[in-house]
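Sat 14:20. Reprocessing the chain from the morning session after the first attempt stalled halfway. Input below, unchanged.
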Amino acid sequence: MPDDSPVAEFDFIIVGAGSAGCLLANRLSANPDHRVLLIEAGGDDDWFWIKVPVGYLYTIANPRTDWCFTTEADPGLAGRSIIYARGRVIGGCSSINAMIHMRGQASDYELWAQATGDERWLWGGPDRPGETLALYKELEDYFGGADEWHGAGGEIRVERPRVRWKILDAWQAAAAEMGIVPIEEFNRGDNSGSAYFHVNQRRGRRWSMADAFLHPVTHRPNLTVYTRTQALRLLMDDQVHDHQRRGAWTTAQHRATGLRLLKDGQVIDVRARREVILSAGAVGSPHLLQVSGVGPAKLLAEHDVPVAVDLHGVGENLQDHLQLRTVYRVRGARTVNTLYRNWITRAGMGLQYLVLRSGPLTMPPSTLGAFARSEPGLATPDMEWHVQPLSLPKFGEALHPFAAITPSVCNLRPTSRGHVRLTGADTRSDPKIFCNYLSTDADRDVAVRGLRMTRKIMAASALARYSPQEMLPGSSVVSDEDMENAARELGTTIFHPVGTCAMGAFDARGLPRSAATVLDTDCRVFGVAGLRVADASAMPTITSGNTNAPVMLIAERAARAILG
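Finished this time. Tokens:
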């Protein structure tokens, strides 16, 4: 229950009960001497559609569970603004996301190690430096049990998908004709090939990070959870104790002492005796820092926000995976489109789920994946496909009235960078999200190659019996210029924003080596003692694939740094 004292005091205050926040609340409250407060702007995760895997159709773009952000008009998307879903509910994005368990590739963590100067981020393994693989194994409860690559008994449940599609098996065979061979699974460090995605589910139900980390410990008397509570700004003072002058706090002139909140219509203050940890995500965390006076001085001055720390990287360095949705009509194939057309088959799907916890209602947004190189000389794959046995004009609209599949391809290592910036001194005003997609030659080149490779796969003999017909972008799109324009028209987010409070390296004086750096390798905010950011915004570079699992890695590392 919430503390009723005028100014409630805790040892640790965590902003955001999403994936990272749930893990941090679990770890920090394990010591009964720690009083921990977890703050969530949304409500409880007890809605039926959160637990049913296909319920993402109802939770995304729904204010009950989603912040319902939209991006700024983007030249890279032909001037379009798009929906930018972010979880606003206990469990955060893990309560509304695709449930795909994807660690990324070993090469991703080499970039993190280079950016931070910390070899612990390396993938690791027998006789190799780095602890990333070992931490993933500790966190995991893998359906196949513990082995060289996986762990058992951890909190994060990982299972096989509970439905297969012949049309997707045929797509996988067609990809093999193009050199993208079937593999047993992703998550072993090099994802080259194709496989059905492993998912965060337990017996056919979504297994969010709230299920994994928060719900099992809500009985702890030293853990308090505030729901429907908006963080308005950080509270700071100028008294920095010597023992807090470590890492990014070496030159700190301020200390985070708590937060101002809006709870039950009342503005209240809560105090943190030890630390405040922001886990509000790649949009929420930089926004809260900015309205609190931590960010680019020029930007803050434009909105009459007093500058506490002039920190250029806050809100900058936004990276995301842009998926290019192609649609192919097929004949003689069972797809979600054909099943959903008939009320009898719809009822059958529901019954199959209720009785057996299997079938299409257990399906994540994308079922089959594939990784490949856009150029032969690359060391590891830089393109990924998410293949869906369905199609629709755009998210939120009705399925097409014909059988079809959607092979979406994305650039795993975009060089385009966007930003998140405040629009005023109040966190209740949505920030500006500018993704700046396809703003570099390199990204446009990969987009063209991805569309061409998709077309080659769809023309392979393994799919011939289904007579695939290209609906989007359409056979009239031929030249590179046409392909670029198609990418702008078709492109949309896969909801993987990262990097807006990036970790980086510091010099001997305790100063960031890069203008993009906001955090040190232990997620401490430069210039403000007692303050960390532990969520997707901490990633210096985006990982190869879905980002929820890497967020859990960051949260676990941050928890160990705090407790250590």
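The chain has two domains: 8-97+209-319+497-563, 162-196+322-411+437-495.
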